[in-house]
Amino acid sequence: MTKSGAEKKRTRRTPGGVQNSSRDLNSDTPPKKQASGKDLFQVFAEKVRDHKEFESRWAVLQETRVEYFRGKDFVNFVRKHPEFKEVLESDKDLATEDVADALLRKNLVVRCDRVVKTLRPGKKKLSTWPAHLEIFSDQMFSENDAFFAWAFVKRRPLWQTILSFVWPVVTLAICLFPVFPHRCKLIVLYSCAGLLLLIFTLLLVRSLIFGSMWILLGKRVWFFPNILAEEATLSELFQFWPKKDEEERPKWTARLFFSVVAVLFILLLRHHAPDEAARARYQKRVSNIIDDVLEWSPKLALSGMMEKQETVVNATETNTTDGTQGTSEEQGVKSDAVIEETKSDLNIDKETSGEEASENQEDVHHHNHI
């Protein structure tokens, strides 16, 4: 591998330095700080490592899983964010390559090389992010196909450690929410509704302040400027005072245009706003739904279920009694019909026997007459 003139001028690390680097990787203790106190280069390295725009990957280095980055990505990131070098105070004017060499001297990073240096079958170039690395012999910074692994343990804030124990408890509580007491459910409901109302109110107020200041004075004023920032820390998230507006002053034509649009939007909302009767109906409907949720209690629910069960039992008994009475009446009607049929059969038999007797008497009388 060819070396540039700038790289030749830099001092090389001794093999003992390489051994110390490997020993630092296998140990879990962070590197020692300078005798003067806080190590500014370590603070710089931690800020760069924690930034979301800084691209890095994970790989295996001497049976140790490490996080590494490319040399060209480090140079591009520092050039894009020169404010990170302000942490170095007296060394903030150093070039990016010199800052990287300082990180190498302090064993904060270790230069690595890919293990597989030959093309695999069917591949046209080597992997951009290799999965296996080894320590490079010359510990100096370079942008040309150079990889650097972080050699210090990433520290976690205390609140993250506490949250790691709290999150399982919160997850279990969310899963058991259906069996919570009714009073606890009301507390959760009011808390969530109040938090959402606070968030939306804060966003609306800061937007109104920004729009008013931008249209009237031509200044960009965002209170709580980091409230929607993804990379902001917890302390930066609730920073109240806005940053100084360093952008150009907006043109009066743009301010006039947006002011006209805002006035038309307000007039449109006012024209299509519901009247008092519609608002009252909607409020009553919503309040009834909320009242049903808030006024519900297990005792009332159980009493209502018992009343429904008693109503069903009474209705069943009434239907059974009515059915029994109907059956007895039907049986009585049938028995009466059978008795009437029997009587009619007896009458018919009597009439038939009477007619036969009269015919016999007539025959006897005719025989005697002869």
From TrEMBL:
InterPro entries: Sec62
Subcellular location: Endoplasmic reticulum membrane
Region (Disordered): 1-37, 316-370
UniProt keyword Endoplasmic reticulum, yes or no: yes
One GO BP: post-translational protein targeting to membrane, translocation
Broad class of where this protein is predominantly found: endoplasmic reticulum
Any single GO CC term annotated in Swiss-Prot or TrEMBL for this entry: endoplasmic reticulum membrane
Bias (Polar residues) ranges: 17-29
Bias-annotated ranges (Low complexity): 316-327
Membrane topology: Multi-pass membrane protein
Keyword Metal-binding: no
Biased composition (Basic and acidic residues): 340-353
Family indicated by similarity: Belongs to the SEC62 family.
Protein known as: Translocation protein SEC62
Source lineage: Eukaryota, Viridiplantae, Streptophyta, Embryophyta, Tracheophyta
